Amino acid sequence: MATTLGKLPHGDILKRISQSEHFQSGSFQNIEHTEMLAPNSSYWKMAIKYWQKPNSIRPSSPIPSTKINLKELDANKAQYIWFGHSSYLLLAEGKKILVDPVFSGYASPVPFAVQSFEGTDIYLPEDMPDLDILIITHDHYDHLDYETMLKIHPRTKKIIVPLGVSAHLLSWGVPLTKIIELDWFETKEIDSTITVTATPTRHFSGRSVLRNKSLWCSYVLKLGEYKVFIGGDSGYGSVFESIGKKYGPFDLAFLECGQYGDDWPSIHMRPEETALAAANIGAKSFVPVHWGKFILSLHPWNDPIKRVLAASQNIKLNLQVPKIGESFEFTGSGSVDGWWNFQ
C-alpha cells in the first residue's frame, strides 16, 4: 500500500514547485476560491450518508460495452475510445494518446474498495497500443492508477503530468526522461503535430491525508488540425469562460459529469454545469466523462447522463455518449441511443 500511495515532491521537484505562483503556504491553491465542503456539511455527516447509500448508485446489471482491437485502429483517423469514468484513448494525425487510464478494477489504495461496475473492465493495459503520449490530469486514484502505470509506461514515449506528480512516477520506476511536468498556462510542443498546454480546474490533489502537494490540471491539446480540451476534474466556475476566451473554440471536449454531491458543490460539476462549461469553452462536440464505472458519490449511477442530455438539448449542444469500448469520431453527430436506460 505504501508503494501505491506514491511519494511527495522533494529535492529538485520541490524546488521547482516552490517557484510556482500557484504554490502558496506549502500547498497549491485554486485560482478561484474553492471550498472542499459545503458550509452545512462535515465528514461525519458524509460518512452516515454513505453508510445508508441507496441501491441505485450501482447498476443492477452489467454495463453495456464492446471490445475492439485497439492495436489495429487507424491512428490517422480522428477517433477516440472511452473506457469508462475518465479513461480514454485519442487517435489522430498518426498519434496515440491515452488519458487517465485506470485498468486495475478499483480506484483506491486497496483492491476491495471503490470497485468498478460489472461489465466495465473489458480492457486491460495489455490491450493498449504503444503510446506516443500518456496524459495524467491529477493524482487521485480514479485518475492515476499504480498498477496500470507500471504496465503501460514501458510502452509510452512521453508522459505529461501536472507539477509535482512526477514524484509518484519516479518512485514507481518511470524514467525521468519520459516525464513532462507542467504548471498552469505552461505549453510544451511535443513535435510538429502535438502541442499541450496545462490549464486550471477547480479541484484538489492528494493520495493520502496530505492534500494539494501536487497540481491538478485540464489540458488544451492541439493535435494537427484538431483542438481538444481534456477537462480533468473540476467544479464549475469562471475558469471555463476564461479558457474558452483564451484557447477556444474546441473541436472536441471531455468534461467531468459525475460524482457530484451537495456536500462538495465547488469541486465536482453538476450535469447542468457540465453543459454550461461545454458552451463556455466553445466545444463543437463534448463527451461527458467521470461516470459509468466507479461509485464516488451517492447519485444514481446513470443520473449524470440523463441530466446532461436534457441540459445539452436545451442549449443545443452536440453531446456524444459512446459505449465503453466503442470507437467514435471526433466530429461525430452524437449518440443518444439510450444504452444507459436501466437501473
UniProtKB/TrEMBL annotation:
Residues forming the Metallo-beta-lactamase domain are 96-291
What Pfam family is a match, any one?
A: Lactamase_B_2
Protein name, as recorded:
L-ascorbate metabolism protein UlaG (Beta-lactamase superfamily)
Q: Which GO terms describe its cellular component?
A: cytoplasm
Concerning Gene3D superfamilies, the annotation shows:
Ribonuclease Z/Hydroxyacylglutathione hydrolase-like (3.60.15.10)
Q: Which domain of life is it from?
A: Bacteria
What are this entry's molecular-function GO terms?
N-acylphosphatidylethanolamine-specific phospholipase D activity; zinc ion binding
